[in-house]
Amino acid sequence: MLEARNLAAGFAGKPLFQGLTLSLRRGEIHGLSGRSGAGKTTLGRALAGLHPLAGGEVLLNGAALPERGCLPVQYLHQNPILAMNPRWRIARILAEARPVPEAQREAFGIAEEWLHRYPHELSGGQLQRVSVLRALAADPAFLIADEITASLDQISQAQIWQLLSAISRSRNIGILAISHDAALLPRIVTGSRITL
Ligand SMILES: Nc1ncnc2c1ncn2[C@@H]1O[C@H](COP(=O)(O)OP(=O)(O)OP(=O)(O)O)[C@@H](O)[C@H]1O
After folding, report:
1. Does residue 176 contact residue 25 with C-beta atoms inside 8 Å?
2. Whose CA is nearest to atom 2 of ligand 1?
3. What residue numbers bound the domain in which 149 lies?
4. What CATH number is given to the structural domain containing 70?
5. 49 with 73: CB under 8 angstroms?
6. Ligand 1 centroid from CA 167, angstroms
7. pLDDT given at position 42
8. What UniProt keywords apply to this chain's record, in alphabetical order (predicted)?
9. pLDDT band at residue 108, thresholds of 50, 70 and 90?
């Protein structure tokens, strides 16, 4: 269970939200929506331990998030190239947390030839697959998927969410899907819907 208790966060002393309480179960896809600028990304990053809290706490199974090692709540960026070292080839990026078995790479449709390329030499959809698999290699309890398919075509979007739905169930990973796409969330959410 990933919980936020009485959470507040924002910028320069101005909270975007406060007194926010939620609990997310593992093995389900939850949805987070809200108007542009409401603080969805900030909340997602706070839940992953990447944004300082102005109040409250984030608990994973009743305990604070660890400060070292692989993050158990992995944050997935809308634009994965911003979260990749441009000087590293895909093989090194993919194995950043732990080596990825070949069978898993193939299941994700990540071609062997991509491994020798740099991030800017893959398409947005290809990069997002790499980003998701890299996060899964860290063996997370939760993924925060921040608009991860917003810039992809319908087919790539459907493929990525089919993969994530299956993995969420089979590996008991909770996913928080952040999206402003009114059509997407009803299709993928199996858990709670949160509006900020
Ligand atoms: N480093 C920063 N310093 C000051 N304000 C910031 C900073 N980063 C973001 N903000 C502001 O915080 C607010 C919330 O941003 P956030 O990205 O969390 O919203 P969001 O709900 O995810 O928006 P969108 O749907 O447009 O992606 C916005 O008004 C944004 O301009």
Report:
1. no
2. 11
3. 2-195
4. 3.40.50.300
5. yes
6. 30
7. 97
8. ATP-binding, Nucleotide-binding, Transport
9. confident
- Rounded to an integer, the average pLDDT of 81-97 is 94
The reported pTM is 0.94
In the prediction, which pLDDT does 65 show?
93
Count of domains observed in the chain: 1
Single-letter amino acid, residue 194: I
Ligand 1 within 6 A of CB of 77: no
What DSSP line would sit under the chain, residue for residue?
A: -EEEEEEEEEETTEEEEEEEEEEE-TTSEEEEE-STTSSHHHHHHHHTT-S--SEEEEEETTEEPPSSSS-SEEEE-SSGGGGS-TTS-HHHHHTSSSPPPHHHHHHTT--GGGGGS-GGGS-HHHHHHHHHHHHHHT--SEEEEESTTTTS-HHHHHHHHHHHHHHHHHTT-EEEEE---TTHHHHH--S-EEE-
Nearest in space to 56 (alpha carbons), one of 23, 12, 26: 23
Mean pLDDT of 80-108: 92
Amino acid (1-letter code) at residue 104: Q
Q: Is the pLDDT of residue 97 over 90?
A: no
Give the integer Cα–Cα distance in Å for 54 and 133: 32
- List Cβ neighbours of 186 (8 Å cut-off, separation of 6 or more): none
Q: Which atom of ligand 1 is nearest to the CA of 12?
A: 4
Place of tokens 């740099």: 118
